[in-house]
């Protein structure tokens, strides 16, 4: 099992943004030195749920500073972007990372975010697929080709030359699919992309990974494509480590309260419970909301002493999880608690799964 760091820091308010971003950057660079193989960024707006907001800009800032870790966007939301602007951002990040970055695409997202960007959240799946189709057309555009005319429900234009810069990789940047639903998993398999997911319990995750690999083979992808997909498919959960189980759960009270309060802003009580998922307006099988604290801790988190966390992670390793993505900074954890949790995770948890060579 390899370990990735998921970076989605909440903020208690505008007066804290600068400190949260500074602390997050320190956290990322420490993770890179401590043996994490990837750093995973995501995008959220308007809700204090993600302090840095623009994943592409933050990734471009981090990429030259990372010595070991791959940059992964988990995820960008195509429905919230102009297709040409998204193609350009993706190409530039591909250049800055020398082809190592992976850009996970997702439907999104909080109704608050969609409304803020002038989008209809009920159309999120269709909007994503529209933009993805246009991205492929944009990446194939060469000097001398006929102009590319494109149109979505929100944008239209005519492009008379190539996207600049060109991608570092031959055809387009590496893509993935971030989704907490089975439909999203099947979409990833059809496209030949790695799948980024979370919140499933070990047996559920293992079964879905088997189905994902079967779907990759049924789609007719080459062995090399299947190998790369499986190499980068990841699962994410929030992780908190303390000296004892009792201390860990006691420490969670305030961070989880802030996390739940922000969730209420992002997902108002009159919006569908699964607005961030792909399954229409029905509650997904693995759905869990941050305001349902007990279920959230059980399904979305791994909490406890180093020994407890190791035991939980061993269950996922046995289920076939190759890449575990840990969100260690959440709910505006204090620097002391964050540093202690990070130290316990890197020094007493990670070495139980891999040989870590700090740099």
TrEMBL record:
Keywords: Flavoprotein, FMN, Monooxygenase, Oxidoreductase, Plasmid
PANTHER family in the cross-refs: ALKANESULFONATE MONOOXYGENASE-RELATED, C2H2 FINGER DOMAIN TRANSCRIPTION FACTOR (EUROFUNG)-RELATED
Superkingdom to which the source organism belongs: Bacteria
Domain Luciferase-like: 1-322
GO molecular function, one term: oxidoreductase activity, acting on paired donors, with incorporation or reduction of molecular oxygen
Pfam families: Bac_luciferase (PF00296)
Organism: Cupriavidus necator (strain ATCC 43291 / DSM 13513 / CCUG 52238 / LMG 8453 / N-1)
InterPro entries the record matches: Diverse_substr_monoxygenases, Luciferase-like_dom, Luciferase-like_sf
Protein name: Luciferase-like domain-containing protein
